[in-house]
Amino acid sequence: MLDATVRAPIPTEGLGEPNLDETRAFLTALDPNVAQFTFATFDDVVLPNGKKRGRGDLLNNCLDETLDELAPRLAELNAQGAGVFVMINAGDGKGRSDKHVSRVRAVWQDDDQGWQGRFPLLPSIEVQTSSGKHQRCWLTNGLSNKAHATVMDRLVASYGHDKNAKGLCRVLRLPGFYHRKGKPVLVRLTSCSGTRYSHLEILKAFPPVERTKTPARSYPQNESADFEEVREALRFIPTDDRAVWLEIGMSIKAHFGDVGRPLWDEWAVRSNKFDSRDQDKVWRSFKRDGIGIGTLYLRAKESGWQPTVSNISNFSGGRSQVSKNAELKPEPIPLIRQHPKGETYPVEALGSLLGDATMAFHEATQAPIPLCANAVLSVATLAVQPHIDIELPTGTAVPVSELFVSIAPSGERKTATDKKALKPVRLHGASLWQRYEDQQESYRIDRSAWEAQEKKILADRKLDLSEQKLQLRALGPAPKPPLKPILTVSEPTTEGAAKLLMNDYPTIGIFASEGGQFVGGHGMADDAKLRTAGFYSRLWDDGTLERVRSKEGAKVCSGRRLSMHLQVQPGVAAKFFSDPILMDQGLLSRILAVFPESAMGTRKWKDPSPEHEAAIVRYCARIQEIFSKPLPLSESDFLGLEPKPLPMSREAHRLWIRLADHIESQLGPNGAMELISGIANKLPEHAARIAAVVEFVENENPEMIGEQRFKDAMMIAQYYAGETYRIYEMTRADAGLMEAQRLLDWINEKWPLIASSSGRDANTISLVDIYQSGPNQMRSAKVARKFIKILAEHEHLIEKPDGLVIKDKDGKERLRKEAWHIVGRVQ
Fold first, then answer.
1. Tens digit of each residue's pLDDT (9 = 90 or more) over 654-696
2. What is the 3-state secondary structure (H, E, C) of 189-233?
3. φ, ψ dihedrals at 759, nearest 5°
4. The whole model's pTM is what?
5. CB 407 within 8 A of CB 595
6. What is residue 805's DSSP assignment?
7. Strand-strand pairing, 561-568 and 553-557
């Protein structure tokens, strides 16, 4: 029992239940691949004598378990006065010391002093521990323990970090629990983009602190240089010549010593020949009495570098560019990385029938062309998939099924386009249902007759066993039920889709104009996500289904086909395409997605042309014709398909191999396709599937995939790879930053017109202007302030302390206290 004087009453006013949603969000961002973390609790309460109750108190603990296991205990300890913490770097589960750290997950700033300034990288996670106090983390991969220490030293030296909170095994307060020093304050997760920076990005942003020490040699004034000057010069020097690589390394080592190592790494890593082990070994061999920094500058000038400061070009001393820059106003910091615009969809590569239909639907709905192309190609795939497989150069025949995703906000006419493209499917489905009802009645009669005859045979006691067998064999198997023609569904669970394919119809399509219901449905819940992804991946791979049930036993069905076209909002897509489980499992590599530029604001009414109306008629007729073909069903499995393998010509075969080899060369570290390695690996197969679908649509009885058809399909597949790259890049951006960018775009594009029409200065803006006239998402002062703060932190807006005086409609002057100057306004 603890002494009552030690367990002095502690303040509990304002103490509520922990916010475990924020806790889970923080831990998921910190490390989405583990469930167990190293938690710690310490007594937060200060006794009247100014001392804490001591480390021997029962409130001081180190706990290596999952949050779900520990949540009740952590909540209880928090209520008793303990602060709740978590070790930021990954531990081995055996304790909390530097030796127990297995991997660096982040660097951080523990800001107890209300540091004011801007960071070279936006924090991945920001936590408010109490009023005016924050913890900020930059998530990273591949940072060594030694490099972690140098970065933490930089954060102490330049960014107000607590010098006592930089150890590898440091714990920080856990969001969702209460800070118990004084009146309880909930520790809040204020920002969580989850951005994970490379170790080189971290080292570049937070370079080592230069230590004051006696140099190994004296350096003449005419070799003065700094990191930024050298970094700029290195941009011009090619990296692939080993002799130049050695020269540059020696120059940097001679001038900066070991603190210059990040400069050499940043430059050298651009080479395809980069080898980190060789880099380490050679750097250690350099001496500080080697060639000077002038050699580096000479190489840069030979490659086109034009120095802008005299001390670099003639090494005559004087102020550096950095010292001059200190006198200049910094430019606004980009909110998000500028992403390239999407390429033009290669409509001509879809063939005359599907290509003409795509443009016809574009004219009819004025939806972006990629949305129309996805709608048309997905329907064609649904029609063709039961009839043919594509035979790859590997010798394997695979389905031609594809999974399409179209990303666009509301108002882009996604649904209208899909309805038009699906018209032949609906018409064929209606005719199949009429036929099904007729067949169902015939089946009922046949089944009843068969069962009656079987019952009669089994009940005849005059027959011995052999005679019974003979008559049952003569009776034959039971009549097969007609196929239930469910061609498309919108949001089935994996169980529902499996039952359809196993029991009702062997080829289906998932078409959802509101794909958010599918992505956010039960099948994509955390406990079902991996199972759902595996289900769709397996069907895409070979058309096979497996089910194991305690009552039914195991059942394996082959010869099934499933295609998909989901239309989703950008916010839903961001969550879907950044999901680490779906990324690792491989489902995302099987998806062909588009995210076109918006067409809203440019659409004017057009009467459909006769040519485009004719194209839609041809499209509908051909798709219905394909659907009307008898399904190639297996004799052994009345619901199993046996599609005809469609081979590739010798020329197409060679193109396939060249494409595969080219992609492989782009997949290494820092390769052009490293970010999209999943879909890149499958790109030749995607091209082959697309080629097969287009060939079947264009030709009544195709014999093989020719060279030109495969070239066209390669263009389409490479377009989808480019879209995937853009989508992956864009989904990395924090949602708050994307909203702030939307506000900034409005300020730059719309506000000047509004200001001009009311006789206002377009270079200034007030809070009222934003929430009264700005984007719909900003229509309250509270929301507008949130995103204005982001723009101010990134120096796009500068606060006007005295406010802004404006004239209203009656000519009266009014003071708006919250106002800003717009940075960088073009006059």
1. 999 999 988 888 887 767 788 888 899 999 999 999 999 999 9
2. EEEECCCEEEHHHHHHHCCCCCCCCCCCCCCCHHHCCCHHHHHHH
3. 70, 25
4. 0.52
5. yes
6. E
7. unpaired
